[in-house]
Amino acid sequence: MSKAERDATVRLDLNNPVFQRDLLGLQKAERHAALDTLAKLHQLTWNQVYCDKGLRWEKIASVKPPSSINALYSLRITQARRAVAYRDGAFIRLLSIPPDHDATYGRK
Question: Are 63 and 83 in contact (CB under 8 A)?
């Protein structure tokens, strides 16, 4: 990955219907925490996302991604929840907010 790609500002794609359902289904406090995380992501470069200890961007090795996606990743979206996403150029494409840790990693 080039320096320009690492230093690019993150662009958010929140259009996945599963992600939208999960986000809107969160309790009010968790939903606000998730929105705070999305606002934070919107201000970061990709290099900052990779290094941020609060987000904990991690590759999900236990789930095979669709053929059009190189890899799936999880990141902390609230204190208790992780989101599933992937990188597509400058975009982070958010896919879901599973109900628990095991579901994030395909163990349920």
Answer: no
Cα distance between residue 64 and residue 14, in whole Å:
22
Q: How confident is the model at residue 102 (pLDDT cuts 50, 70, 90)?
A: low
Tokens representing 82 are: 């992780």
Q: What is the mean pLDDT of the chain?
A: 90
pLDDT tens profile 7-42? 889 999 999 999 999 999 999 999 999 999 999 999
Rounded to 5 degrees, φ, ψ at 107 are: -95, 5
Q: How far apart are alpha carbons 70 and 7 in whole angstroms?
A: 20
What are the boundaries of each domain within the chain?
9-104
Cβ(6)–Cβ(44) below 8 Å: no
Amino acid at 11: R
Count the neighbouring beta carbons within 10 Å of the beta carbon of residue 28: 7
Architecture of domain 9-104: 2-Layer Sandwich (3.30)
